[in-house]
Amino acid sequence: MKAWLVATLTLVAPVAIAQKQVNVYNWSDYITEDALRSFTQETGIKVVYDVYDNNEVLSAKLLAGRSGYDLVFPSARPFAARHVASGLYLPLDKSKLPNWKNLYPDVLKGLASIDPGNAHLMPYMWGTTGIGYNVDKVAQVMGKDFKVDSWKVLFDPATAKKLSSCGIALLDDEVEGLGAALIYLGKAPKSGNVADLTAVTNLYQPIRPSIRYFSSSRYIDDLANGDICIAMGYSGDVLQARDRAAEAENGVNIAYAIPKEGAIRWVDSAAIPKDAKNVAEAHAFLDYLMRPAVIASITNYVTYANGNQAATASVDPDIRNDPGIYPPPAVAAKLIDDTLPSNAEQRPRVRAWTKIKTGR
Ligand code: SPD
Q: Is there a single domain that holds both residue 293 and residue 348?
């Protein structure tokens, strides 16, 4: 072939145009398929979506570097706070986020204490950690007048033993697992005090044989199907279990309780890892998530409150008035915002939690 012909063919040969994409790593059961599909339809950006159910798993990937993710959703305290302090995130380019104005000023103010100037973290959803339960099975085992209104339901060995017959699950979450026990003992949920943590391990020790498993996601389906009857759980996940059971019309009746001793209120945020490859696409996806109609429809499905003030009017009234999702003032007064243990407090906490989980 003549040289000039080869050159011409090379020039006109079709070049595959790479589709833009964004690699998202979020908690499981925390978005709608419809939101992902609509984003791609509108922008042409493909969303590669992976899920986790534990902040430690996300942290390990970020600390190792080259996670391959362009957008991640750490819980604000202590995780996102530590990530920001370690320089793991890119500053957000607010000029690419016109919907930032829709966010709640109070939520932003809360995040600014761990992320000065709200430079890296966008508030996504917030919720509480309490107790999810199968109303009829618990009544069957404990008697119809038994109330699920205290952490005692999980931490009293005699009660736990009885409830183990229908299945108890706990979160695989050090912050929440230790936090609930510390609140029950009247201590600060972020305590790293060795005496407090010994009291916590002593509290778990007699109930440990009654715990079927530790998982931060499996309990949703298990509650909905009637395979367990009680779980320490995240508010929206328990209410998703309630909705799944109702949809399946399987006669399982799930409720969520915020214990009278108090509970942790947490916020999950979104951030762009420092080594993200698709930064423009990550900003486009973040801005899309801050559209009132988009985030309200996600809230309506995942049953978590969001950090978007402009979305409130579009949230389904049933969700807005659900005390498990938006706790009324008397309950809110008992909530303790997630906190940030120091490194010195963290070490004994990790040791205590490992001991509790392994039962050794
Ligand atoms: N299925 C979504 C669950 C989100 C829970 N994030 C909160 C963690 C609190 N430590």
A: no
Atom of ligand 1 nearest to the CA of 129: 9
Q: What is the pLDDT of residues 290-327, one digit of tens each?
A: 999 999 999 999 999 999 999 999 999 999 999 999 99
At 295 the pLDDT is: 98
Q: How far is the CA of 221 from the centre of ligand 1 (A)?
A: 16
pLDDT at 102 over 50: yes
Specify whether 345 is located in the same domain as 222: yes
CATH code assigned at 188: 3.40.190.10
13 Cα to the center of ligand 1, angstroms: 49
CA distances from 7 to 2, 14, 17, 109, 277 (A): 9, 14, 21, 60, 33
Q: Are residues 43 and 111 in the same domain?
A: yes
Q: How many independent structural domains does the chain possess?
A: 2
Nearest residue (CA) to ligand 1, atom 3:
27
- The string of pLDDT tens digits covering residues 194-212 is 999 999 999 999 999 999 9
Question: Residues 305-344, buried b or exposed e (16+ Cβ, 10 A)?
Answer: bbbbbbbbebbeeebbebebbbbeeebeebbbebbbbeee
Report pLDDT for 17: 72
Q: What is the pLDDT of residues 138-192, one digit of tens each?
A: 999 999 999 999 999 999 999 999 999 999 999 999 999 999 999 999 999 999 9
- In this structure, the answer to whether residues 221 and 277 fall within a common structural domain is no
- For residue 144, tell me if it sits in a domain: yes
Same domain flag for 78 and 212: no
Q: Is 28 in the pocket of ligand 1 (CB under 6 A)?
A: yes
Looking at ligand 1, which residue's alpha carbon is closest to its atom 5?
234
**Residue whose token pair is 């999810």:** 132
Answer yes or no: is the C-beta of 26 below 6 A from any ligand 1 atom.
no
For residue 220, give the ligand 1 atom closest to its CA.
1
Protein residue whose Cα sits closest to atom 4 of ligand 1: 27
Q: Is 122 left (phi over 0), alpha (psi -120 to 50) or beta?
A: beta
pTM over cut 0.90: yes
Question: Does the beta carbon of 172 lie inside 6 Å of ligand 1?
Answer: no
Q: Is residue 171 assigned to a domain?
A: yes
